[in-house]
Give the backbone structure.
Amino acid sequence: DQQVKQNSPSLSVQEGRISILNCDYTNSMFDYFLWYKKYPAEGPTFLISISSIKDKNEDGRFTVFLNKSAKHLSLHIVPSQPGDSAVYFCAASATNAGKSTFGDGTTLTVKP
Amino acid sequence: DTEVTQTPKHLVMGMTNKKSLKCEQHMGHRAMYWYKQKAKKPPELMFVYSYEKLSINESVPSRFSPECPNSSLLNLHLHALQPEDSALYLCASSQEWGSNEKLFFGSGTQLSVL
């Protein structure tokens, strides 16, 4: 049973436009969510996070939205840049679980 | 220094070999992790060390043996691996062990078992 799902394996957008990456979860105990970005031949790097007490968190071009009732979160990148082309992983954790559960990842391609 | 350094970057080993993966961080982080990642799949947690003590073992086969000699170093000893163990092995660290901690990952060791 996959508790964190990223249903779009890939996404292609034009430079300057908005990229929206989606993530769904099934475990209602999850209360903290993170996004990581991964370039080829590198480990994932932390991008942005959100606690379940919030519904939005913004950091520069990156905004994460959380809809607890729908068990859905999304990452918005505006404006998208070619350097944003990478695999994006959504991760979720529950208080005191001590570990994050990752989604399968979405490969974002931003075309110049 | 915000790096997690893993060596070697690539490793090819036979099923009877013994090898070790090494991981080092100098950020003063007290939690260190081993993850396994297969192609097109998410990272899967294997082990967590907190303050140099093993805190989580995700039912990993005994042919994988972790070791945390000190707060900066994490090793993964490999023995009698199977071809299906071929994967990218990622080390990560976080300031403390907890659910709301962001992870700092190394670049990984790409392991091939022949």
